[in-house]
């Protein structure tokens, strides 16, 4: 297995819809926009992509378009479910199209113990030769993978290459960064912690906000990694309101609202998600205007 190194900014891509179907034309344009902005890697079929509401055929087509437009950028594809069989099934559906790595979320709803998480990720990794990135997001799953569990897997399982840490707990992220074995990559999963986690030694970010402002997120991320802290801090401060409004309702509702207001996709979701409230949409629009984004 070749060593995959993720460094910098990667976008967790939205999935646009039109009249109930995936809008593949709009999706292609969104991916192209990310690549042209200098994005370092891409994440289709994650939480932001409303993946639980997609069919296998839609997942494959979305991945194929991503690969066609990526111009060689690494593609990490989301495949996690709350069932080992379901996750492995997703992996087998997507594996023939050669993703660079799988992103696998801690099983949601089941509320596994730490030992259950360990055994689950060990079994997931054994089912593929590709690199696996664990995804810890307690706000979605109802349980928190503790650093000891993640580090145990990092040391014990050869193709578990990293973790997307989205607990929102900076000190937990620090523990992962401090004790990670050589080559194990800690990747930020919270836009508002990106600057701090990168300064502490995280290698990059899976960003939601970069759907809206890809060039600025790339610029900020690279500035931190290049040691240009004054520049990075200035950009980060300017983006704080964007980070906030991206999560005033359940992701990806606000970010798709922003893309709709920018004329880049329809304001359409699959139930149980629905369009943002009027109040939230107004806050998104105000943020975009403050950032100097042209609204349509």
Secondary-structure-derived class: alpha/beta
Cα-atom radius of gyration: 18 Å
Q: What would CATH call the architecture of the domain at 8-214?
A: Alpha-Beta Barrel
What is the overall pLDDT average?
Answer: 96
CATH topology-level name of the domain at 8-214 = TIM Barrel
Please name the fourth-level CATH homologous superfamily of the domain at 8-214: Aldolase class I
Taking strands numbered 1, 2, ... along the chain, how are they ordered across the largest sheet?
Answer: 4-1-10-9-8-7-6-5
The sequence of SSEs as H and E is: EEEHEHEHEHEHHEHEHEHHHH
**What share of the residues does DSSP label as strand, in percent?**
5-15%
CATH class wording of the domain at 8-214: Alpha Beta
Q: End-to-end span in angstroms?
A: 46 Å
Helix count, DSSP H or I runs of 4 or more residues: 12
Described by strand count, sense and barrel closure, the largest sheet is: 8 strands, parallel
Q: What helical percentage do the residues reach? A: 40-55%
């Amino acid at each position: 297995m070749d060593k995959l190194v993720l460094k910098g900014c990667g976008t967790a891509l939205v999935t646009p819809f039109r009249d109930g179907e995936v809008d593949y034309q709009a999706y292609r344009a969104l991916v192209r926009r990310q690549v042209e902005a200098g994005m370092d890697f891409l994440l289709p079929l994650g939480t932001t992509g409303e993946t639980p509401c997609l069919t296998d055929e839609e997942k494959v087509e979305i991945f194929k378009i991503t690969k066609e437009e990526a111009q060689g950028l690494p593609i990490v594809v989301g495949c996690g479910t709350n069932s080992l069989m379901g996750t492995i099934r997703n992996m087998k559906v997507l594996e023939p199209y050669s993703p660079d790595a799988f992103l696998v979320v801690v099983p949601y709803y089941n509320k596994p113990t730490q030992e259950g998480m360990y055994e689950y990720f060990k079994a997931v990794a054994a089912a593929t030769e590709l690199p696996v990135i664990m995804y810890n997001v307690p706000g979605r799953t109802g349980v928190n993978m503790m650093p000891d569990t993640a580090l145990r897997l990092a040391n014990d399982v050869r193709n578990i290459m990293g973790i997307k840490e989205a607990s929102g707990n900076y000190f937990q992220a620090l523990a992962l960064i401090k004790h990670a074995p050589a080559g194990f990559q800690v990747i930020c999963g919270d836009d508002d912690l990106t600057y701090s986690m990168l300064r502490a030694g995280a290698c990059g970010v899976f960003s939601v906000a970069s759907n809206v402002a890809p060039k600025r997120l790339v610029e900020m991320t690279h500035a931190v990694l290049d040691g240009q802290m004054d520049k990075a801090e200035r950009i980060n401060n300017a983006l704080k309101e964007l980070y906030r409004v991206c999560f005033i309702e359940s992701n990806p509702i606000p970010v798709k609202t922003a893309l709709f207001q920018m004329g880049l996709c329809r304001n359409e979701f699959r139930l149980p998600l629905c369009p943002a409230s009027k109040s939230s949409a107004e806050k998104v629009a105000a943020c975009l205007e403050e950032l100097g984004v042209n609204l349509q």
